[in-house]
Amino acid sequence: MRVRRIFSIALAALTLCAGPVFAAPSGVVRPAPAFTFGGAGGKNSLASLRGQPVVLVIATSAKSKALRSQLGSFKNVYHDCASRGAVFIAALSDGGTVPSNIPFALAANPAAVAAAYGMRGDFLIAVIGRDGNLDLVTDKPIAGARVFEVIKNNFDVQEKARRELPKGPPPR
């Protein structure tokens, strides 16, 4: 019994010294589930949008109160988001069109997208960063300004800022 305990302690010490065995793939903390959507030239995939932020809105119906509320909050920030290359995609389970002047691409299989993103109610919004990281997911409508802030300060930008911080104590 004593040998087993000594072996366990030695193994734990070796593990601590060796560091983690697995490395996170390319800095992406929460990879966004893949899906396809319609667009110019046929079907496109989320992977084809790498390098662009994506705002994904999922709803059971185009008449959803939460969806309409979210669309209303996008009016004031759409141009700011679009200037940063944001692509807006909707997955509507009823197969309807998005009641908005904002150009939305439509997901090819809304039910599968809803399941992949863990939608439990009748609405969900997700913001996917340029790096493919799932930066924000919520089942409540959020302010358009919050969506823009997430796009502006995505994980990629935060990671770069962390690397650029000076080492050591601040200068006096």
Compressed to H and E, one letter per element, the order equals: HEEEHHEEHEEHH
List low-confidence stretches.
1-25
Output mean pLDDT.
Answer: 82
Return the domain count: 1
Shape: globular
Q: What is the CA-CA span between the terminal residues?
A: 57 Å
CATH fold-level name: Glutaredoxin
Question: What value does the Rg take, in angstroms?
Answer: 21 Å
What's the CATH first level? Alpha Beta
What is the helix content? Answer: 25-40%
CATH architecture: 3-Layer(aba) Sandwich
Most strands sheet: 5 strands, mixed
Total count of helical runs of at least 4 residues: 6
Structural class: alpha/beta
- What percent of residues are in strands? 15-25%
Q: What's the count of strands?
A: 7
Describe this structure in a few short sentences.
It contains 6 helices and 7 strands. It is α/β, with parallel strands linked by helices. The protein has one domain: Glutaredoxin (3-Layer(aba) Sandwich), CATH 3.40.30.10.
